[in-house]
Amino acid sequence: MSLTLTAMSDSAAGEQWAGPGQGPRQPRGPYISCITNRSTNLLIRGFMLFSVGVFLALVLNLLQVQRNVTLFPPDVLSSIFSSAWWVPPCCGTASALIGLLYPCIDSRLGEPHKFKREWSSVMRCVAVFVGINHASAKVDFANNVQLSLTLAALSIGLWWTFDRSRSGFGLGVTIALLATLATQLLVYNGLFQYTSPDFLYIRSWLPCIFFAGVITMGNIGRQLALYEYKFIQEKMHQD
């Protein structure tokens, strides 16, 4: 009799009951535990954002170099991508940090971003960003002031169309200013240069490009975080 009671208690202890009228719920398996681990998810999202940043850096920097907007010393150029080796990793790292920071700030402020939260909107945002960068290299304007004002309007229009959050605008402006300062230091130290600098060693429209890039990577980071949340909720519900 005691053996029977012991076996019954062990069986009950190994099962988790969902509630009255429902069957026993088995403990979550290692797969569910893995995909719900916060550190693992951050690493996955960070790697994806890093990869996107590297790809965009290679494509957009190639355009700038081919149009002679930026000049690198001949000994540091790659024969394949016409770019210094350190440019893609730096852009990838910055993209990962920005993409992880945006949803984190939204969570801290208690203001989840809900405007146009779908992948089609994110892809359009990337396309507009590439178009803005393309315009800075290929479209001829009467003077640099006209070009800078046009790119500023396009960048703000990108934020209004795909973001519209105060936190997104504030982070975009802050990071764009810091990135511009870092670029000035790089140019000052001779790592590369602009063909027609008109504002402290750089082009005056550069902050607009950085702002548009920050908004774009922020949208990608937010969408990845939303997709991750929905995926985890679905898997936990199925379990």
TrEMBL record:
It is found in: Endoplasmic reticulum membrane. Its main location: endoplasmic reticulum. It is a multi-pass membrane protein. GO terms for molecular function: lipid binding. Belongs to the INSIG family. Mediates feedback control of cholesterol synthesis. One of its GO terms (cellular component) is SREBP-SCAP-Insig complex. The keyword Membrane applies. Residues 1-26 are annotated as: Disordered. One of its GO terms (biological process) is SREBP signaling pathway. The chain crosses the membrane at residues 42-63, 83-102, 145-162, 169-188, 200-220. The keyword Lipid metabolism applies. This is Insulin-induced gene protein. Keywords: Cholesterol metabolism, Endoplasmic reticulum, Lipid metabolism, Lipid-binding, Membrane, Steroid metabolism, Sterol metabolism, Transmembrane, Transmembrane helix. Pfam families: INSIG.
